[in-house]
């Protein structure tokens, strides 16, 4: 049976001869609070607490963080075979536990480590396009933890530290995006807030712009704060104008257009759409590698969504079909635009056409690994229940019920 976080803390503490009261003194916790922690109380799920515990026990954070897979449990058990000896020696020499605060005692972090993190970010974005966010949340979360561990206990130069913080901001944004796609909006909001802070600390305008672009989605997709979404998208464009390339500027502008479509300001929305497409065609500036996965078809699809929200369903259908035609290399992304095209038809009252799209691509549409898209599909199905007299609707529900 896999060891829990609480059990792991208890075994490490006992192995170095530390009492619960002593550990509590280091953490400014009471002895009963430590007992609850070791019995997997709520604090055992708080990463901020676990960072402090790891420093107090002088162990890597990854040993304490709860993971479900067998490989992670095996790493923990291996730590108890080899790692505790070193910890015990340290405590014995000092005769009392101390919190390690010097970054120089941790692993040395270099440019190659930052490059590896950036490659992981690129991979997460690519996998999200291919597989959807539901299957990537744990992977992205663990990657964020890895970067945070390097920042907390690693040893690095000022230059590498700045690059590592920027990479951390981008990794947090990637984690926020897959959690958003998985319908875990509170988690996404937390990651975006952490990413914005890291980008500000590192002075990285590109990372800041990317974070604000994604954060504005939460404002207008929830429907409660579209004006805030406009402000975030405009802030992203300002940051991207100074440092970013054409795709980053285009993405920021099209997000502004989407937020404006929620408000219902057609003139301003069309202006933002035009600005987005002009930016995409520009050659000025530098885009990060992860935006290599922003094809023109993506811009077309987001433009289609903006027109759909305004009720201009004819214009929306043109752009959405263009997005479908341009994403053949990414089947999951193509399915997303097929769902949106069906939604646009249904909203326009073209019920048979909307059902025709769903029926033709039902195998992929019904199994796409994105809670966000499955929620949209369920909303479409709820709307279609009012049109059961249409033959295509009955055919769709035959598939829907049997899936």
From TrEMBL:
- Annotated membrane-spanning segments are none
Q: Which GO molecular function terms does the record list?
A: DNA binding
A Pfam match: HTH_3
Q: Which residues form the signal peptide?
A: none
Enumerate the spans annotated as HTH cro/C1-type domain: 9-64
Q: What is this protein called?
A: Helix-turn-helix transcriptional regulator
Q: What broad taxonomic lineage does this protein's source fall under?
A: Bacteria, Bacillati, Actinomycetota, Actinomycetes, Mycobacteriales
């Amino acid at each position: 049976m896999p060891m829990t976080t609480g059990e792991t803390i208890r075994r490490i503490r006992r192995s170095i001869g530390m009492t619960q009261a002593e550990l509590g003194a280091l953490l400014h916790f009471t002895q009963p609070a430590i007992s609850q922690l070791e019995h997997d109380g709520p604090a055992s799920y708080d990463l901020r607490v676990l960072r402090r515990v790891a420093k107090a026990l002088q162990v890597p954070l990854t040993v304490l963080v709860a993971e479900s897979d067998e490989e992670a449990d095996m790493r923990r058990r291996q730590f108890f075979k080899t790692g505790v000896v070193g910890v015990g020696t340290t405590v014995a020499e000092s005769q009392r536990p101390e919190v390690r605060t010097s970054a120089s005692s941790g692993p040395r972090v270099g440019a190659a480590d930052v490059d590896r993190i950036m490659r992981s970010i690129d991979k997460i974005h690519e996998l999200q396009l291919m597989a959807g966010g539901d299957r990537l949340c744990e992977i992205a979360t663990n990657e964020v933890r890895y970067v945070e561990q390097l920042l907390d206990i690693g040893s690095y130069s000022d230059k590498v530290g700045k690059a590592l913080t920027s990479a951390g901001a981008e990794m947090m944004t990637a984690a926020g995006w897959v959690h958003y796609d998985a319908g875990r909006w509170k988690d996404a909001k937390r990651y975006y807030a952490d990413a914005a802070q890291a980008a500000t600390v590192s002075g990285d305008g590109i990372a800041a712009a990317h974070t604000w672009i994604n954060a504005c989605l939460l404002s207008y997709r929830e429907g409660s704060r579209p004006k805030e979404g406009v402000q975030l998208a405009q802030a992203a464009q300002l940051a991207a104008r100074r440092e970013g390339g054409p795709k980053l500027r285009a993405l920021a502008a099209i997000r502004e257009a989407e937020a404006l479509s929620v408000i219902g300001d057609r003139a301003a929305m069309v202006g933002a759409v035009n600005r987005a497409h002009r930016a995409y065609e520009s050659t000025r500036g530098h885009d990060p590698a992860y935006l290599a996965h922003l094809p023109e078809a993506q811009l077309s699809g987001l433009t289609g969504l903006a027109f759909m929200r305004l009720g201009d369903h004819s214009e929306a259908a043109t752009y959405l079909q263009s997005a479908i035609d341009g994403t053949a290399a990414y089947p999951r992304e193509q399915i997303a635009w097929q769902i949106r095209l069906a939604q646009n038809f249904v909203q326009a009252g073209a019920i048979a056409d909307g059902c025709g799209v769903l029926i033709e691509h039902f195998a992929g549409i019904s199994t796409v690994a994105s809670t966000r898209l499955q929620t949209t599909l369920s909303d479409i199905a709820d709307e279609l229940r009012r049109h059961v007299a249409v033959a295509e609707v009955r055919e769709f529900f035959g598939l829907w019920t049997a899936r």
